[in-house]
Amino acid sequence: MTIISLGPGDTGYLAPKARLALEKAEVIVGYKTYMDLIDPELLEGRETISTGMRGEIRRCRMAIEKAFDGKETAVVSSGDVGIYGMAGLVMELLAEQDLMDKLEVEVIPGIPALSAAAALLGAPLMHDFAVISLSDLMIPWEVIEARVEAAVRADFVLVIYNPRSEKRHWQLGRMRNLVMKYRNEDTPVGIVRNAAREGQSVHITTLSKLDESKVDMLSILIFGNSKTEVFGEKMITPRGYLKR
User: Fold this and answer.
1) Domain 2-111 has CATH 1.20.1730.10
2) What is the pLDDT of residues 88-114, one digit of tens each?
3) pTM of the prediction?
């Protein structure tokens, strides 16, 4: 079984090894939105299995079954499969069934959405940064909030996944209020929506002017730290070379 990273979306960012693995696959399994990112030619003549949101466990179980049936099976995720992707769940399910030593699994890394977003903004991740998801579907909000506060107090640049949805509309505001306890209101904030996909948008604002209504599940936010600056249309967190 192969667990394949599709990258942020643009087929130009699909790694050659990932493409080769897709070409070898007999069965390709993934979330429907991610399946739509794959070149249709790579799906031709192959069995495809897709589910909607919250169908992760079911489709990973089906992928494992296909692999044990002797099919060359690929599980796909956007970005990097090891960052909020399917690599962990597939391995958890194999471990749960005591199958880790009975099925060979290869994980193919890819360009994560955070890298695509950072590149579009400029160079905001040149110093230490923390990546946090605001989704509290599986992690209690109190834990997420504690992680945010610890990262902000330590002056990390913050990369935020899953910042806001129709049902989760208050978490981003709570998080911003927490950040404002420790950072200047003019701290740069980058908003990238659909990074490296159709409908891509890039916007740089400040902590105090962040318009939460323009943020959704397709957005990645990058909150600068105390050193982050905006030059022209680029957001940069200096590494410190010019001050040595």
Assistant:
1) no
2) 999 999 999 999 999 999 999 999 999
3) 0.93
